[in-house]
């Protein structure tokens, strides 16, 4: 993962558990002025989540961003 992706991931991963949850993604999007409904946030996480655990790992996050995708 590039340093930029790792830094961004750490900012979004508020609880520091190494994973981004639906709640963390929702909070990020709200701060960015693009709030998501709980359903939209869950769908966004599901679209990035490759291993089906309902969370976004650093690797999943970096892969998603490297493909030039955006959330929301």
TrEMBL record:
Pfam families: EF-hand_7 (PF13499). Residues 1-35, 36-71 form the EF-hand domain. InterPro entries: EF-hand-dom_pair, EF_Hand_1_Ca_BS, EF_hand_dom. GO terms for molecular function: calcium ion binding. SMART domains: EFh. Transmembrane segments: none annotated. This is Ca2+-binding EF-hand superfamily protein. It comes from Streptosporangium becharense.
């Amino acid at each position: 993962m590039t340093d930029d992706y790792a830094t961004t991931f750490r900012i979004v991963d508020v609880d520091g558990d190494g994973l981004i949850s639906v709640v963390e993604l929702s909070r990020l999007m709200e701060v960015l002025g693009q709030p998501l409904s709980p359903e939209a946030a869950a769908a966004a996480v599901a679209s990035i989540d490759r291993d089906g655990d309902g969370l976004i790992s650093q690797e999943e996050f970096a892969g998603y961003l490297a493909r030039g995708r955006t959330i929301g």
